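Lab notebook, entry 405. We have the chain sequence and a SMILES string for magnesium ion, and the next step in the workflow is to get a structural model of the bound complex before anyone spends time on docking refinements. Request logged below.

Task: model protein plus magnesium ion, output structure tokens.
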Amino acid sequence: MKEISPFSPGRPVPVEYFVGRKDEINKLIKGIKQTSVGQNINAFITGERGIGKSSLALFVKYLLENDNSLLPKDIKFLTAYCFLGPAKTLPEVCKLMVEKLISSIRDESLWGKIKSSLNKYIDSIGLDLFGIGVKVGFKKDLEDLPSDFYSIVKYIWNMVRDKYKGIMLVLDDINGTTKIEGFSMFLKSFIDGIAVDYKERLPLLFLLVGIPERMDDLAREQPSTARIFDVIDLRLMSKEESREFVNRALESVKTGIAEEALNFIVQYSGGFPALLHEIGDAVYWTDRDNYISMDDAIDGIMVAAENVGRKYFHRRLYKEMQSKTHRRILYKMARSQKEILTRKDILAMLNDKERKVIDTFLNKSINRGILRKLERGEYEFPSKLFGLYVLLESIKEKNKPRGTA
Ligand SMILES: Nc1ncnc2c1ncn2[C@@H]1O[C@H](COP(=O)(O)OP(=O)(O)OP(=O)(O)O)[C@@H](O)[C@H]1O
Ligand SMILES: [Mg+2]
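Result returned:
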């Protein structure tokens, strides 16, 4: 009886299954080393949804907290990983950051001191109900917290500097936050504050994590904010990385896989980590004999298409595109497996009935976010995952018993 899947659809990948991203990790390691000798490094980890941003940032957090072969043993950082999702105002954002910074200080003897020094904002620091995490009690009035934020981080650094080489502060899930008025200015003046304090620079590795549009939000409010951050843009994983991941995941649960089934899974995930996990997980639960055959892989991919669709795209494909003819055109586009198609390419794939509606189809698809128009009459799916989902749905459609379509 199977109990735990080694795949983690919808959740950042556990460190032991993390694959690839060598260039990005090297870039970040370089930043960590620079930070540890007293510089401030700022980076924006970006890429489309589900590409692996949080997984990468969490992997780096792990490297900074645990011994590993990538970093010298003495390079350990105090790390604060903030999911900003619930924060709606600037003081709330700062509250979250201060809370995460303090709660990662495991040395209880420091808590009393920190509490009394920061008593303008903090009421209590103690263990949580279960004695596992640290709970920080804040005062009600946090209005001035943003303007005091730099001094607070500096103060915390001074409390822990004999134990660590730097601080890593991560702001993830910044979707709602980048639109908060003053957020972009706040980031800029916080980072400028570090630069101005040249006598003793705060060794801060500051990471923002979000889709590319979030940096556009920041740039709109304060154009120079964007320039402060080095961009780390995550792309699809290579075939080798995808294979390595599936092999490693399956090995850990003592499950074998046929070569053609592995190729099939890797091909349909298209290097998209989110889809690789969805497919892997579905295949894993479909299999009954701890050996993934081609049949298991096909069944699993059908299930994955359902899951992915339900989670992300069902509405876009079926509600926004009611016409079966339009959908058939879309299927043909997806099946061509070309990333970019011209109008001429599309026409070449269509029958007469479909050709007649090509312009209505293109207009509707663009208006509803189903396709994106590039320069010179080229078209693409707005995300690879969506393109792959359409492809999986088209395979399902093709395999449906006749008469049910
Ligand atoms: N390097 C990796 N190795 C293996 N699996 C990965 C890797 N990176 C990401 N994944 C998997 O891909 C999926 C998406 O990853 P993650 O949540 O990190 O993406 P994200 O870019 O942060 O997404 P979102 O924009 O929704 O926050 C998850 O199922 C995760 O487990
Ligand atoms: Mg994420």
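Notes for the group: The chain has a mean pLDDT of 90. Worth checking against the assay data. Residues 8-13, 17-21, 47, 49-55, 211, 245, 273-274, 277 surround adenosine-5'-triphosphate (ligand 1) (CB under 6 Å).
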